[in-house]
Each structure stands twice: as structure tokens, then as C-alpha cells.
Amino acid sequence: MREFRCSSLVLFTAVAVLSIGTATAAPLGTCTPPGAWAGATDFPDFEVRAWGAFFPPNGKFYALGGRDSDDAGSDFLQVSEYDPVAATWTLKNGTFADNQVNNMVGGVLDFGGTPYIVVLGGSAAGATTTTTEVRQYDPVADVITTLADDPWPGAADGVTLPGGAAVYNNKLYVFGGFTVNVGMVNTIYIFDPSAAAGSRWTQSAATLPVARGYIPTATSGDFIYLLGGSDYDPTTPAVLDTADSFVYDPTGDAITTITQIPRATGETRAVTQTDGTIWVLGGGRTDPNPSNEVDVYTPGTDSWTTGPAFPTARRNFAADIDPATGNVWATGGYDTGGLLSVNEQFTACTIDDTIFVDGFDGPI
Asked: Which one, 94, 121, 154, 210, has the greatest CB density within 10 A?
């Protein structure tokens, strides 16, 4: 039998091996393999441009919004929930009030002691207008509420999508964006759930050094990292991948250039692993993208390596990480041939439960 276990159980198992002393095992505290991608239960339909969110209180992954084609009217209004233990998808009752649910960004925020998934902005399939709406999803009550008093200021023009987003100190930071069929923007907006309704948004004095949209963004330690992202050529017109990389200091409200990601990418997610490194998951549309490469940024050394590539190269997929285990989910997206329903999971630490000749069940 094979199970996925947390580090505390690994430690217990290692101690048990020492006490018995007859089982042949891997070095203490290690796993075999140290992490790998594998196919999980596919999404029930095609799914592109959804926002993915792992919800720590119940250990489940959510796909919010998106659509099953690029045709008008193909938008998903109900939330879908993936249970990693049961390996099943469930269509929830939580329903968006309108169909401007593509290309949203968001995060998990605490409102007075209650955690919610917050998403903002978005557009409808086939449309060129966008929304300012901020929506709050409660996975426990399975209800979506629009925070009508706090629309996102970045889409006040009605045609701008949010760029990248990350949570720091229970505030949601929204970087850049895409003014549809015009170009990218360089603004930074901050949403504070602890502020009074009607005053939760502020705009940072700092701006991105270059205007960008669809930015892989993640928090590590006291900083937020923006790694790649999209530019726009209005003459073609075309969305273009870039390698520009920056670090933002929320305390000092300052942004600085760091070592570029080794390959240009955009239209994907970045996630922070348990060791503080940041993984940029494939993405991109400029040839040879979309990619399945996982580029790993180490903040302490301002350097890049590569991690385990996921099986299916794609962009615009729903993704997130369990911050406690380092497990990652990547669902749907576009490959070079079209839309996907594939769901893949990175399991950070796999334990093989093997019955030894002396009867002990431990890691090998």
C-alpha cells in the first residue's frame, strides 16, 4: 500500500527503524522519490483561465471561474472542488452573480477570524469588457458574496484585467494588468480585509518598472516576487512572454530588479514551496512555449535552477500549492492544440509502505 504522509510521520518511522535495527532503509528523514508529478483525476470538462486556490482549513483545491471554450456563454459560474484524498471533483452550489469570471486573480484572506477565498476582476468569454467586482467565497457555507463596497479600482475603466497577485500579512497585492487590446499596466493595488468596508483598497506609490500582465507572482518571507509576465504588441496584435523579474518590498513599498527567469514566460502561476523557493509552473505562449518546465528561484542567492517538470505543457491553467506539504495541483489550460481537462498533482514527499521480513512497515 502507498500513502502520502507528513514530515512528523516520517520522523516517527525513522525512529522506529532505529529501534528495530533489522530493516534496510533509506537515510533517515528522506523520501523515495523526494517529489514527483503524476496524473490526478481530470477536471470533468475542458477548463481554461480559471483561478486555482488551495483552502488550508479543509485541505481541498478549488477551481473558480474559467470556461470550457473560447465561445461566448461558455463560462463556469459554479465553483468546482477537488478532494485530493478521495481524488474526486464536486460541483458546488457557490455561484457567481455574472459571467465575468475569466482571468481573475485572488488569494485566501482572513476576515475577522474567518478565512475566505477572494477573487477579483475578470472578463466573460468572447468579451472585451471587464469587471471591478471583488468576490468572497466561503467554502464552508458554499456561498459567493460580492463585496459591493470595495470594487477593484484597477478596472474602473471597464476594460482592464488584473495581472498577478500574492498575499502578504493577510493583505492581497495586485500587480499590473492588461487593458484589453491596448496594452499592459504598471500599477500596484493593495486589498486589506481588516479595513472597514468601503476603504479596503489603497494604491501603492510604487509602480512596476515595466508594464506587465499575467504575472507569475508569489510571496516568500517578507517579499513578493514577480517572475516573468506578459507584454503586448498592439500592431500584431499579440501577447508576448517576457523574462523580466522583480522583488517587491511591501514594508518599504519599493520594487527592485532581480536575476531574470531563464526562459520567458507568462499566463501561469508561481507558488512558494515549503523551503521558501518559488516555483514558476510552465506557461507562456511565445514559441517554444507553452512549457512544462518548472523554474525554481532561490531568494537567498538570487539564483535559478529547475525542478521536476510536470507531464503536460500548458498555459492559463488553475494551480495552487498546499503550503503545509508542498503538494501542487495544476488543472486544465491550453496546450498548442487547444483546451485541456488534465489535472496533475505534484506530491512533495512519497512514502512507500513496505512490509519488511521482520514485520516492520517503514520507508525504503
From this structure: 121
